[in-house]
Structure prediction request, 367 residues.
Amino acid sequence: MQNRIVMLADFDYFYAQCEELRDPAIKDKPIVVGVYSGRTEESGAVSTSNYVARKYAVKSGMPLFLAKRKLEGTDAVFFHVDHEYYDQISDRIMQIFRGYATSLEQVSVDEAYLDVTEQVEGSFEKAREYAQKIKADVKTQVGISFTIGVGPNKLVAKIACDSQKPDGLTIVRPEEARFFLAPLDVDRLLGVGKKTMVRMEQMGIKTIGDLAKYDCQRLIEVFGKVIGIYFHNAANAVDNEAVVEQGEAESISRIGTLKQDTRDLEFILQKTTELTADVYREVSEKNLSFKTVAIYMVMVDLSSKTRSITLEQPAKSKAAIETNVRLLFEKYLAESTLEIRRVGVKVSGFSREEPKQKQLSSFFQSI
Ligand code: DGT
Ligand code: CA
Ligand code: CA
Prediction:
């Protein structure tokens, strides 16, 4: 465990940067990428924005109409999120990262941990050059910039990364880690939300440094053994979590808002056909078979329900999703009275069959 070197790479203003990559002519304009609810042209929220737009106080999660108001009079451009395109770019970058790390743990579409201990022979000096090399390589091959945090573990790498964006490179050596964390507010630690922050403030803990010095036994009394010890360790920059490759996704799903509230089966199926097409594309790209098909709905009163069918045999066709989605909605509508506002389609219970031919050739290779 000694002298591990872990990097966190986080792509800068990711969705908006992808849009800049697609059309470099808009680079100097404010760019907003939004999730539109589909109800009206205006309703929806900001997913992200480039740094030009951020100068006008546009923020992730803000209603789109508010972002529009803040950018009034500018030559701002607005986009609908295009997950398929962002995923493609993300996959290309992750693929490049794989060549640079002993293990890669992708945590979201725009974030991954790299364990590079071996590659830099445990040297933080080499890690700096190595990080610059990775940044330059991705910039040349894909055209995307990102920020890297380097530390002796994932916790420190993450906070180092957050400390200087965009296009940043922050290195925190093991001997500096506690001093680096000490002045920061406790809510920078994973697991410290609003409620915990208030509780800690009552205990006289405001910064990570305050938490580090706090009696560990007392933390255990207040937060329980597991969390108390976690807080104590985290504040002292201790984190032994390994960088681990993530397995396959457990399910693939898509959700969308209906153009109007309804109980009309055909109207609903028009929407789920679009969602199914997206789900199916991902399933077939990954060459997966699924055993469960589920639907999800949000009613007008915002309550939500799911219904699912488990198939007798694993299936992999689009028709298998469509048929079962229809069946599930028919059944659900017969037993409910509320109008539906949003619908979703999900498949799970994955298996992956290797094509017969491949099995044969690998058999021959091994003898
Ligand atoms: P950064 O890392 O500060 O340069 O900017 P981003 O945009 O890369 O922000 P990050 O890393 O927090 O999130 C990565 C992507 O996730 C971002 O490009 C869009 C999406 N995202 C982030 N926050 C929100 C949100 O509040 N709502 C929605 N719908 N999407 C979000
Ligand atoms: Ca990011
Ligand atoms: Ca991120």
Remarks:
- Residues 10, 108, 110-111 surround calcium ion (ligand 3) (CB under 6 Å).
- The longest helix spans residues 265-285.
- Residues 15-84 form a domain with the MutS, DNA mismatch repair protein, domain I fold (CATH 3.40.1170.60).
